[in-house]
Amino acid sequence: MGCNMRKCWWHGKIAYQIYPKSFADSNGDGIGDLRGIISKLDYLKDLGVDILWLSPIFASPFIDNGYDIADYRNIAPVFGSMDDFDELVEQARKRGLKIILDLVVNHCSSENAMFKKALKDPFGKEASYFYFVKGKDGRAPDNLRSYFGGSVWEKVEGYDDLYYLHYFAREQPDFNWNNKELREKVYEMVNWWLDKGVSGFRIDAIMNIVKDTSFPGLPPDNNNDGMCAANKMTAKLSFKAKEYLKELRDRTFLGHDAFTVGEAFGLNDSILPDYLGDDGCFGSIFDFTAREVFEKEPGYYAYPEVDIAFYRDSNFSMQEKANTLGFVAPIIENHDEPRAISLYLKPSQQNKHGAKALATAFMFLRGIPFIYEGQELGMTNTRFDSIDEFNDLSAFEEYRKCKEHGLGDEEALKVLNLHSRDHGRTPMLWDNSVNAGFSQAKPWLKIHQDYETLNVKAELADPDSTLNYYRKLTRLRKDPRYVECFTYGVFRAGDTSDREIVCYNRHSDAMDIMIFVNFSDSERKIQLPEDAQLLISSEKAELITGTLTVQPCSAVVVRIR
Length: 561
What we know:
The chain has helices spanning 34-39, 41-47, 82-94, 113-120, 180-195, 230-236, 242-256, 272-275, 289-295, 308-322, 340-344, 352-363, 393-404, 409-419, 456-460, 466-477, 483-488; strands at 15-18, 51-54, 58-59, 71-75, 98-103, 132-134, 144-145, 153-155, 162-165, 200-203, 228-229, 259-262, 284-286, 327-329, 370-372, 490-493, 501-507, 512-518, 524-527, 533-537, 542-544, 547-550, 554-559. By secondary structure, it is α/β, with parallel strands linked by helices.
């Protein structure tokens, strides 16, 4: 089966997400920075990735770790200067690496100059760039709950019945995308960065840009506070966002041949073609099928227990929907999620064997795979010993919810130790020296408990490490003999009756390649054509005259045609 997609430069590439605050500290202040990233470019090149996504590096008060932007055209001093950024782009280019940035334009920071002017004159021009709305019957305009808890509405100081809208923290006012002048400012800023040499963007929280300006609210959900989660309204309006997003695409990305990947929750089957594919809003979208199951719940305390079958079925669902339509971006973790090994695997598999098996299941899905920093080491969740060790705004809100729901301190901490976003934000582990080689100073967030053995230096020296296995996977995915199949070949799900097996094929006109991952505690035997060829295995595997033996908690990739 062939593929009729328009060919783009990012097809066949592998991306890597950098959380700058936690990647590498070059100046000893305990916080990662741009020069730290520059110093690690050779490491990233050797890992086999092509595209580097940097979480926000813009000027910010860091209420939400940089996702509250005060100045879109300046670098936060804690990360360095614009000269440092320009050097990063140039040094990356020399190594064949592309830089993409986080585009955060659903909201900005309350320290943004436009919002400061809006607060001074909530009926003036700048105020029209946001949502300043009168209350209803002495209360807020509607009953939506923000992503970080509490109302999405904040009273404007000096006014008895005037509010501004913020779907996230109160320090993150939402932009009014209905305002054409505001949209023009966004497009001008995006083109400015593209002209500077940025190769594209990851587009943050973008489905939230459409609002029902009658602000009708929604029936209360099960949080017992009379409110309804804002994401319920976002999902209800998701079909409308395409009008603005295609305008954004046409005015900016298309003219620069830019790669874009959308953080697009709530896309149902009927509107998926509007956002993905040759005429879609984005070059790719993250596959959040698994995450959306969690987001439906009122809090961490209600999150379901999940296993590898849950991860498999979630991925297979999106793979089949997007199959020949366009490229999704498969992930197993990012800065908003805990470590996948701790979430999806049994305790006995939360080690390098499980890490390598999970990596194989993820790496050959159809699309643009995104590796998150530390994932290639097999990082598990960091152990936090008290609520005071967390940093994320949502961690404190979720702790409050746990206590309100009747959980004790120890139980609430256990819930956060499984689900907190801070697990993905702890510093990168470079070696076994003080602070894991991340910084000479005390890091801004806790160092992983296993850093003395779980680190880049140790794993580079171990041929059997998770890191060296990731390097083998990236080489295989881009091997000239198989790259066409792994890039454009369709996805075909295997048998899903066994909850501990992940099996799928990548199929092209020229070949069929099977990915088989055994998460059970016993070996499995598979009958294959006698001329089948074993391409890679995470543990020792035997292929003898068409019989393949796969060890417990291990993976194989086999060409079967």
